[in-house]
Amino acid sequence: MKKKSCILFGIVLMLASACVPRPRPVTQFNVETYTRPYQTDFDEVLTIVLDQAIPDDFVVRENLRPMQVLNFRNSLKLSLYYTFEDSFKDVRFLDTPSSEGISLHLYRIRPSWKIHTIDDQVTAVGDVVVSSSTYFISSMIRYDGILYRNGEKVKIMDEEVIGERVETNIRYWNEAFVDGVREMCEDLYQQMAEEQKSFLTRK
């Protein structure tokens, strides 16, 4: 009897493993940001530097099922460009900060997950009890950067943002990840707008 239960348990585990979906990979994307509440006319050229420490391809794990992110640097460039294009004379990407205008140097971007709650469920199959968990998660991104004005450091950024989208379906984790990048871009815009308003006040 014990042997039969063990065999049944093994079959259940194999079927459960085969049916568990996997996160879709994150491929090239561009986020649509909402920046009007902080709209500021910078009237300058923005230089953005993406440090080499920011990877192009990586895996987000955080003790959950791994999700692959591909071509991240190009997605980041597109997202940042369209976030700032309406507020600056031009947005360009260089290897070093410029001595003229405003420069944003992003040193590090660390994506992970924010687990809001976990819903644990127990299912009985004959004499076998199978437990499963549903995660309510959002994308969480920590980023580090420095803002320069005419070559001089004016602001150090060490921030953490959490996307608004909460997902339970593992198939849509990729969309939750993109929403976290959108939140990061909006946060960058807000911080730069606040610095610009402070600069204009000091003039």
Task: Describe the fold and architecture.
With 203 residues, this protein is an alpha/beta fold. It has one domain: Rossmann fold (3-Layer(aba) Sandwich), CATH 3.40.50. Helix content is 30%, strand content 36%. Strands 4-1-5-6-7 form a five-stranded mixed β-sheet, sandwiched between helices. The protein has a two-stranded antiparallel ribbon with strand order 2-3. The protein is elongated and about 75 Å long.
Which key features would you list for this structure?
two-stranded antiparallel sheet, disordered N terminus, alpha/beta, single chain, 3 helices, 203 residues, 5-stranded mixed sheet, Rossmann fold
Task: Give a nutshell description of this structure.
This protein is of the alpha/beta class and 203 residues long. The protein has a single domain, classed as Rossmann fold.
